[in-house]
Amino acid sequence: MSKKQYTKAIKDFAKIVEMEPGDIRSRQKLAELYVRTNKSSEAYEQYEAIARYYSSNGFYLKAIAIYKQMQRLDPSQVAIYSRLAELNQKQGLVGNAMAEYRSLVDYYERNQLIADEIKTLEKMRDLDPDNLNVRVKLAEVLTNNDRKDEGFEEIISIIGVLKDKGDFDKCLKLYTMFLPHFPGNRQLQTGLAHTFFEKGDYVRGTTIIETLLKDKPSDPDLLRQISRGYAQSGNYLRAVATCRQLLQMDPSDLDIRETLIQCEIDNKHYELALNELEEWKDTFFKGGRLEKLKEYYEFLNSEMPHTTTIIQTLDSIYEHTGEGGKLLDIISEREDDIDTESSDLLSDSILGSVDLDIEGDEDASADSAFSYGILEDDNIDLLLEPDDEESSDNTCQEFSDSFIELEVSSNINLTVASATDDIENDTLFDLDLDEEAPKTVSGGRENLQADLEEAEFYLQQGLFADAARLCQDILAYAPESQECRHKLQEIEDQRNAQLEKPDSLTEVVVDEGEDFGFGDFDFDSELDQLQSIDGDKKKVFKTDVDEQIAADDMESHYNLGIAYREMGLHDDAISEFEKAQKDPLRYVDCLTLKGLTYSDKGDYSNAEKMFQQALASPQLEDIQQLNLGYELGLLYERAERHNDALVSYRNVLAQDSKYRDVTEKVATLKQRLGIIDDPSPRSATTPAQNTPKSEPDSPKRRVSFL
């Protein structure tokens, strides 16, 4: 080998390996010689035998290093990624295992091996259950490949984790990502509305619930949510009406009763709130809501001072809460107010008349005494008397909610480590991480040569830290070894060179990782991207509604627009259709849907503009022309432009008399307009303005929609 006679050396080492198959050092030398002579397949075979030996004997880190060498020789061997993932997992290097699995996922995705992709993602999920990045990717793949039920379960589970954390921004992004895949799914739509509420967007939340209530107007869960939305958005009248509808279903629901009373107070209907409280205060008291009662009555007392009913109830409340001093303060304030009022009246009387009506003053004093007599009477039956067998300590119960926050780490980094990171952190090749290899270093010189060969092995594999550590161990028992000192210097030189420029092994590994890996999205900053790391880092999964879906993915924008329209979010739907119409194949369909959405909003002018724009499209097909003409007729009918509607329907009728119910539409409109004859239709692009009822339309040449 020193004379570079590699052919002869190969023959010699091949004979040794043949005679002693378990001689791993000789097999290692043979593999290296094959690499030097560009015999990759032979080298691969020898490395594979070495890797199997290390794996079966628990030397996982050594096995990982050999498999990485094999990966450099033949990157197309997909099985290596699987073996590397398993070995890293056994070694406890979860991050490295996940990186190898990601490489597999991307390879399977690019080659349409869906079953293998799903199995690998499931392994990743089981390996790191808290990694929401992987779970979202798994849900996406399941949903897109005829396994929607499993995908849906995964989505709901992920959203549950995020809701437990109170992270509704990320919930919103997941809803907007997956709703197009589950059109009409009430659970997702209701969840989206709830998420809007939690984010303080009550207008959009109530819009969705209103749409859902059209199908189930008596659904108590929907009514509860929309009552909250109305109350929070300041629509108190609707909130009160919804609460009363719920109370008809369940009069004992104190939560709804509280919402009703709060809405009356917020709407400054204090008398109505007081009436409601007086009717239900005993129920509130028995339900352990004494503190809430006290809050309501104290507020009403500040807005409606000197109201006897309020003071009587506060008297009972303070007796149970042991706050009698507050009642004395209220009485004292009331006496001061009445004394001031009496003094003012007396002063006015003196200034206005010479004759003092002392009897009037006495009457006033009597009235004042009467006013307070109620509170001083010891025989008053308190309105909120507790049961005789219950002590006052058990009457007022305080409840506190316990929140268990499920801490899901969102700082998980799925990106493939760079070459420099590998060198500095030794995450892939560091044999110093408590390796199980039973290496014994004795104090005798008989181990010197073996240890030097071991250090040379580490050096060749790029494991500089391990090679240096072993050399230090050698110097501990053989400090005079010049060969070891030279080896240590060689290690240091190669390490410095590596820091300046990654060695070929690490460089190739990282490059291949870029070819096969997909990146992650960081749930701390935003519901980031699951990326397919091709040469140009093409993004697979983005976060915001605009960022989640790639700009050129028009089908996703189109489907999302349909989902928004179904939920009554018209402006959002129009925005999505505008993005999707950049696709020439969907241009007419998107304009049509925009027109229908404007019509849903009652914006007939813009709806007509969209339909006319679609009719003028050069990509217009015959069936689309019929559909647009018919929809234009419906639009004119809604806008009570019956003459224009008749023109549109006649154009459709002239092309296809069996298209939907166009014949009946024409007959109905002719009867309404008093038209007897059936003249030739006018073009939908030039609608009639003032067609007389008694005279038929004059014949005109038929004009094409184009």
Automatic annotation (TrEMBL):
Q: Where is the composition biased (Polar residues)?
A: 682-693
Q: Which UniProt keywords apply?
A: Repeat, TPR repeat
| Chain positions of TPR repeats | 220-253
InterPro entries (UniProt xref): CellSynth/LPSAsmb/PSIAsmb (IPR051012), TPR-like_helical_dom_sf (IPR011990), TPR_rpt (IPR019734)
* Pfam family for this entry, one: TPR_19
Entry-linked SMART domains: TPR (SM00028)
Annotated SUPFAM superfamilies = TPR-like
Region annotation (Disordered) ranges: 675-706
- Please name the PANTHER family in this protein's record: LIPOPOLYSACCHARIDE ASSEMBLY PROTEIN B, TPR REPEAT-CONTAINING PROTEIN PA4667
In Swiss-Prot or TrEMBL terms, this protein is called Tetratricopeptide repeat protein
Organism name: Pelovirga terrestris
